[in-house]
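=== Structure Prediction Worksheet ===
Name of assembly: unnamed complex
Input type: mixed (protein and possibly other molecules)
Chain count: two
Listed entries:
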Amino acid sequence: MGEVIGMTDLDTLPEILLMGPGPSAVPPQIYHALSRPTLGHLDPVFLTIMDEIKENLGTIYKAPAGSLTIPLSGTGSSGMEAAFANLVEPGDKVLVLINGVFGMRMQDVATRLRAEVDTLEFEWGTPVIPAEVKKKLANSNYDIVAVVHAETSTGVANPVAEISALLDELPERPLYLVDCVTSFGGMEVDLKKWQVDAAYSGTQKCLSCPPGLSPFALSPKAVQRLKNRKTKVPNWYLDVTMLVNYWEAGGGGARVYHHTAPINMLYGLHTALRLVLEEGLEKTFARHREAHSQLVSGLAGIGLEMFVDESCRLPMLNSVKVPDGVDEAKVRKSLREEFQIEIGPGLGPLAGKIWRIGLMGYTARPENVERVLSALQKSIEKA
Amino acid sequence: MGEVIGMTDLDTLPEILLMGPGPSAVPPQIYHALSRPTLGHLDPVFLTIMDEIKENLGTIYKAPAGSLTIPLSGTGSSGMEAAFANLVEPGDKVLVLINGVFGMRMQDVATRLRAEVDTLEFEWGTPVIPAEVKKKLANSNYDIVAVVHAETSTGVANPVAEISALLDELPERPLYLVDCVTSFGGMEVDLKKWQVDAAYSGTQKCLSCPPGLSPFALSPKAVQRLKNRKTKVPNWYLDVTMLVNYWEAGGGGARVYHHTAPINMLYGLHTALRLVLEEGLEKTFARHREAHSQLVSGLAGIGLEMFVDESCRLPMLNSVKVPDGVDEAKVRKSLREEFQIEIGPGLGPLAGKIWRIGLMGYTARPENVERVLSALQKSIEKA
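=== Predicted Assembly ===
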């Protein structure tokens, strides 16, 4: 009856160790959670699960009281879209600090939303330099300053605390928008201490959940800004003024349907947040740092160099220089086909020049580091 | 170490028979698919799965050659957002035909995107009347005409073929945008025959997959319109001009990363499409009609009336009048708590007046109809 084209049997999928820039390895508890019985999006038991997710997102974000912490029904990039779409009004002045793909993406997103976008660019593989930012800030009164905490395309950690301190020196503090896609759950993120007004992440990085949701946060100040908008948010799907009526009981105590929440993905996120909090934030972050140290010394042992200076290296995203004369794609192919390991290539100007090795969440374990080091050595020898 | 607030144990979730307006009951094969090993979003095996999804979406949509059929990384509402965001340029004239919540949502979405939106409204619970549309079309030259095929808020099927025929009579045929959220996979949807230019659905209706993705389609004409845009799509996340470079190999034969696709949800959709095609479209649709007939006669047998006239009733969404003097919420609460069945309430002006009983996908089976009829009778007697 049906015309079914040759279909891949999902029971024969290979088990690949995910050591690229995300998705990361998924623990069995999360796979299990994804397949729990679907409930209605207004079911009382599901509403409790939603409340627990909000609470735990706030804890991991270290969000101040009065913040809004909810998962958005899209991947990490939908978080970026939502942060700008909700906070930018046409003509608003936005400064984007750029040192990689995701800073560039911010510029594109904000421009489409009719912000007046100014940028300050730094060499890829190096961090944003606060002294340069300070000079730039003196020139204009920005409504929003935006930066990527952990630049997934290069492996650089940007000095988000230092940038925040610069904003305090201005006559009026702009909204501070920080991309936490790759940092959230794997290193310190402290929205309160850094006075961050809008942050977002993805589930497929240090939370080790499959991709599909974006943990999102707005400060009380951002929530107020949103309430005072002169124009409607130009994106119905990601309009936080409406999402909040579903995620939080309104005046009448009832939740208002906006769109049907991705129930089973939210089970996965619920479990991921529990696993991080059960391990404890400090222990989780230490595990990421230890896996990183192990990787860095192992790489040195096989003659490979890191791309990023030690002073600003991310623990969970490690950029490694491709040795001269080595075909980087051939090495990745060998890793994938002979060793069942995925690592990432360089993007844009770094294509062909670096590999990106992810140590995110469940991936950040000593046995995985051993495995990738051994496989990498063998694959390079053959390439 | 961690501060974990009281967390719901997902292993104790109740098994609720989902007979509301969506999500629908999920078959075991799809739960299983969701928990298969996560692959990278550029893994060769995953790329094959993506191709199969595109192909099978095209088959179920009956999309003409040259169409684009891809799942979007958001729920059904993201499909609506994407359809308008990609096809509307500021000042474009859009006619929205409204006879329920989702027509109203279209108006809101298109207005935020700076379309010049005109509407034609019909009483909720009745269909769009082609003769009225014809008069309206004579007044203006619209760029886009939009209608909801299966209005989930009322249970009405709109005459999408007749409306399409009216568009052919115009000097220049506008783009025809049809919301197929609740119809796709449960009744005939024929994008080719109806000359539909943009369509979208959700996974949690007749595909019986958990919510989280939107099966989306553009006709060759819509793809061309998109390519000829004067302005960038004002939504980076849902910009189909970029998504297509990930979903289809470009000139160089390589896929370009846009955002990390929701891998495991796509396993679920892949399985859902296979199940529909294995059963066969005609058989699937017949099963929905049969469950509907069984429900309608059963409801009559217990003295309940349908809200929508027989001539335009949807098979998969059944609006039932709440008898005078019955507290509709109390009945739903009894169904949920004593019989583990979810049905939906009325929305907006229909709140308190109707129940909405879904017979979508895996829910549309005789035993479920029996179960809801028996439980409904008992719950009403007690209420």
